[in-house]
Design brief:
It is a single chain. This protein has helices at about 25, 30-45, 60-70, 125-135, and strands at about 10, 20, 50-55, 75-80, 85-95, 95-105, 115-120, 140-150, 165-170. The protein is of the alpha/beta class and about 170 residues long. It has a single domain, classed as 3-Layer(aba) Sandwich (Rossmann fold), CATH 3.40.50.2020. The strands form two sheets. A seven-stranded mixed β-sheet has the order 5-6-4-3-7-8-9, with helices on both faces. A two-stranded antiparallel sheet has the order 1-2. Helix 2 (about 30-45) packs across helix 3. The longest helix has 15 residues, at about 30-45. It is an enzyme of class 2 (transferase).
Length: about 170
Amino acid sequence: MNFKEYIRDVQDFPKQGIVFKDITPLLNNAEILEKTTDALLNLVKEQKIDKVVGMESRGFFFATLLATKLKAGFVPVRKKGKLPFNVLSKPYSLEYGEDALEIHTDAIKKGDKVLIHDDVLATGGTAKAVCELIEELGGEVVQCNFLIELDFLNGKDKIANYNVDSLLHY
């Protein structure tokens, strides 16, 4: 299945010089959405997963679907100030700026086996911050799972100590 046919390049978004990988055409096709979910699930193999962590906001789409199929809980990681309860916060760098991510302090229990999912692995700053949040809460990062990996940005290098897998490479 050529999932790349359903990924649209948008030039200069969110700022000049960035080529944004728009996954909305893929999300808009029920058959392709299901096949993509199954392909991402296959990346996990037979690993035991207690929680699937999805990053704001496009990571939420497949993270919730994967959590359902894995019979695991879903945990959202959001940008600073978006979660309503006690949070653990971690600053990070991304390809076009700086930000902070937060997770509820009760979302991950000591020993939880965690699958991290996001739509794109770019520079790796977001993924590294999320791995650190999970570990600070006592969870074990089993795998970092991505729909798209932008190989030329070498984001995988920042999370080289983890099992990383991506469905599509650019």
